[in-house]
Design goal:
By secondary structure, this protein is an alpha+beta fold. It is built from 15 helices and 21 strands. It has an eight-stranded antiparallel β-sheet. The longest helix has 18 residues. It binds adenosine-5'-diphosphate.
């Protein structure tokens, strides 16, 4: 087992990983920017190293500084968390070259899945249903034929895309050239890769994803699904598990396809297959080769510590449970609490002057903020994840209502009120919402 792990992240996920390490008796090294000197992950870690100035580019994305920190603190492994360098193939590769274990899949798998076109091809070869699309858009005639076949709308997406960037929906053929150029520009700027491709745009799907966990000995388990359809600008806001609309047969079928794909790839670690789901059909969108923000809802309903499992399999251990042992019980919901105005969505960094966190049976808060903490303006605005768990969805919703009511964060704006509205809405309660929910809500 690892003796010391460097956590290449900040905020709630750095704490989440730190806690898992503690339970496994692993020492931790936090990295931080100059702006994060008093952050909770730095206070709680056994050691910490400043890796650069406030901007993420100069610190949490600064590969040479992070590798130097790993070398001087003599760690056996690096956990990347999510975001930042978690899906950076080069980072994983450099870590491998330094004989330090990257807690995640090998760099080749990150590369294969990091490119959405290549991921689509692999999934197709593995009988995982994909969104109908056109990977090569160099021939205008082919685009025309594709549109004639599938009909508008279509969506242009960046091959290296992430965070909803580089996407353009086309409802009218005349918008095609302009939208392709705009998507290419945005993709180039965000990912330094202007390759874009086309998918059929599904008009009212749900976003449903399957969690997998795999060791290096050929054992793979699937841990149910998450419904992440409550999104704003393609950013998830609320996630729940299980989904209200999947039948057990559908769950089993899609999970088995994912399991087989993971086996045939020889993939190791945690991973997520993201699908759009419409009219009882699944359409693969992408695979995330890392821990997801929304992993807690899966942990709650499967009673599995995904971060601990991730560390254990990375250290070479065999999974100590099989698919038959995975029992989905109860219902869990996660609300992402952001430091932003509930109506304008403008980020609201600043000092938290008063803080009271909800608690009680079935209420979990994953957060790194505290009273008098000053939220820096340089990073993502998510400051907490509020997770509830109950025997039924109704209980989970009821607990979420209570927890949101109880949550006090003064000094900055948050989206708590927005969550309260959503949770109470008939559409959310019915469970029949799709990915357009928030655009109707605005
Ligand atoms: P990213 O990696 O940038 O987050 P995804 O491929 O995961 O991009 O898509 C993000 C979101 O965009 C999806 O959850 C969905 O809401 C929307 N989306 C993406 N592709 C399609 C599509 N073909 N049809 C309809 N909506 C889509």
């Amino acid at each position: 087992m690892f003796k010391k792990v460097l956590i290449a992240n900040r905020g709630e996920i750095a704490l989440r990983i730190l806690r898992a390490c503690r339970e496994l008796n692993i020492k931790t090294v936090a990295i931080h920017s100059e702006a994060d000197e008093s952050a909770m992950h730095v206070r709680m870690a056994d050691e910490s190293v400043c890796v650069g100035p406030a901007s993420a580019q100069s610190s949490y994305l600064n590969i040479p500084a992070i590798i130097t920190a790993a070398t001087i603190t003599n760690v056996d492994a690096i956990h990347p968390g999510y975001g930042f360098l978690s899906e950076n193939q080069r980072f994983a590769e450099i870590i491998e070259e330094h004989n330090v274990k990257f807690i995640g899949p090998n760099s080749q798998h990150i590369k294969m899945m990091g490119n959405k076109i290549s991921a689509r091809k692999i999934m197709k070869d593995n009988n995982v249903p994909i969104v109908p699309g056109l990977n090569d858009i160099s021939d205008k005639n082919k685009i025309k034929q594709f549109i004639d076949r599938t009909e508008l709308p279509i969506i242009i997406k960046a091959a290296s895309g992430g965070g909803g960037k580089g996407m353009r929906i086309i409802k009218d053929y005349s918008e095609l050239d302009k939208s392709i150029n705009a998507a290419k520009l945005e993709a180039k700027k965000s990912f330094n890769d202007d390759t874009v491709y086309i998918e059929k745009f599904l008009t009212s799907p749900k976003h449903i994803e399957i969690q997998i966990l795999s060791d290096s000995h050929g054992n793979v388990v699937t841990l149910g699904e998450r419904d992440c359809s409550i999104q704003r600008k393609h950013q998830k806001l609320i996630e729940e598990s299980p989904s209200t609309i999947l039948t057990q047969k559908e769950r089993d079928q899609i999970s088995e396809l994912c399991r087989k794909a993971v086996l045939s790839l020889g993939y190791e670690g945690v991973g997520t297959f993201e699908f759009l789901y419409e009219n009882h059909n699944f359409y693969f969108m992408e695979m995330n080769t890392r821990l997801q923000v929304e992993h807690p809802v899966t942990e709650m309903i499967t009673h599995t510590d995904l971060v601990k499992q991730q560390i254990l399999v990375a250290s070479g251990q065999k999974l100590n449970f099989s698919q038959d042992d995975v029992k989905i019980q109860g219902h869990s919901i996660e609300c992402r609490i952001n430091a932003e105005h509930p109506e304008t969505f403008i980020p609201s960094p600043g000092t938290v002057t008063q803080y009271h966190q909800p608690g009680g049976l079935g209420v979990r808060v994953d957060s790194a903020i505290y009273q008098e903490y000053s939220i820096p303006p340089h990073y993502d605005s998510m400051i907490a994840k509020l997770i509830t768990y109950g025997d039924t969805r109704e209980v989970s919703i009821q607990k979420m209502k209570g927890a949101l009511e109880e949550y006090v964060i003064i000094g900055i704006d948050t989206n708590i009120q927005l969550h309260q509205k959503i949770i109470k809405s008939d559409e959310f309660i019915s469970g029949k919402y799709d990915i357009n929910y928030m655009s109707r809500f605005d």
